[in-house]
Amino acid sequence: MVERYISITRAEGTWSVRAGGAVLAESANALELAEGDYPPVIYFPREDIAMMFLDPSDRTSECPHKGTANYFSVAAKSGKISDVAWSYEAPKDAVARIKDHIAFYPDRVTVEQL
């Protein structure tokens, strides 16, 4: 069951994303998604992201539990960071809470709790 494999909770505190010195997101309303043995992932509400820095990518991927992921590249001062963020535009019902949220690869940008 997806409900046992994936859990979504409110991420405690305020979280931010930075790339090339610029703050891309800051939110006290982020979600934490824990999936199996993977490290937890922080999903930021779109309204707390500076969307002007994100460019939709042609890349997609499929997750049997969450659905189709769409990717974004970031236009940072230091240059383009390709496919650094993703979202599920139409997530499966079991993970519907992540709709209108975007997650970032923490090894390519700085994702931290403030």
Largest sheet, spatial ordering of strands = 1-4-5-9-8-7-6
Order of helices and strands: HEEEEEEEEEE
Average of the residue pLDDT scores: 94
- In total, the number of strands is 10
Largest sheet: 7 strands, antiparallel
Shape: globular
Euclidean distance between termini CA atoms: 34 Å
Number of domains: 1
- Sequence stretches where pLDDT stays below 50 over 5 or more residues: none
Query: What is the CATH architecture annotation?
Result: Beta Complex
CATH superfamily: Domain of unknown function (DUF427)
The helix content, as a percent range, equals: under 10%
User: Which topology does CATH recognise?
Assistant: Metal Binding Protein, Guanine Nucleotide Exchange Factor, Chain A
Supply the helix-strand structural class: mainly beta
Q: Please, how many helices? A: 1
Write the layout of secondary structure elements.
Elements lengths: L1 H4 E5 L4 E5 L2 E6 L3 E5 L5 E5 L8 E10 L3 E10 L2 E9 L13 E4 L5 E4 L1
Antiparallel strand pairs: 1-4, 2-3, 2-10, 4-5, 5-9, 6-7, 7-8, 8-9
Question: How would you describe this structure to a colleague?
Answer:
The chain is mainly β and 114 residues long. It has one domain (2-107): Beta Complex (Metal Binding Protein, Guanine Nucleotide Exchange Factor, Chain A). The protein is built from 1 helix and 10 strands, in the order H-E-E-E-E-E-E-E-E-E-E. The strands form 2 sheets. It has a 7-stranded antiparallel β-sheet. It has a 3-stranded antiparallel β-sheet with strand order 3-2-10, with no helix packed on it. A hairpin with a 2-residue loop joins strand 2 (15-19) and strand 3 (22-27). The longest helix has 4 residues, at 2-5. The protein is globular and about 40 Å long. The termini are far apart. The mean pLDDT is 94.
